Amino acid sequence: MTPAGDPAAQARYQVRFDQGAEGARRIAGAADVLVWVDQVADAAPDGEAAPPVPAEALAAAPGAAVLVAGLRDAAAAAAWILADQERLGRRSYLAIVAAGRADGGFAADDVLAAGAVVDALTELGIDDTSPEAAVASFAYAGLRRAVAHLATASVAGREAVAAGVDPAVLRRAAARDEAATARVVRER
């Protein structure tokens, strides 16, 4: 766990962003809510389980509520977070974590989906974002009209298609706000 005084913890910001289980370890230690974003895994056919949150990421956020989110439920996740913050009666500290690729490479699809979550939070007035979260949000905002294509054309998208996932399934999972319910993995 990264000490709160370490700049990598982004502790001075309400909305923090990083990538992978190691990123969760850096920013989720004092978070009230961890949001795990794995866009291609999120393309599982309807009725299948939500993308798994790695044990290391869960362990990095002891006592935090944990959600999984993607492009299809970014607004629902943000609304859940706002309601949770109102229940707490204080500012919630959030760790938005893009799953990233297994090989440690850059995952454009996950960063865009995480940016959609940050963008949805900003629309609700939760906008004390770290520079890292702001970059993810502005990447999403700037590419909003192309995210379905990018989710399919990204390295993870092409790998999924090569493994037999229908590109139409990937595009449907990249349709922003198709789902109105937040996917809560763990309550606080």
UniProtKB/TrEMBL annotation:
Family matches, as InterPro entries: ComB-like_sf (IPR036702)
Top-level lineage group: Bacteria
Database matches in Gene3D superfamilies: ComB-like (3.90.1560.10)
Organism (species): Agromyces aurantiacus
Full protein name: 2-phosphosulfolactate phosphatase
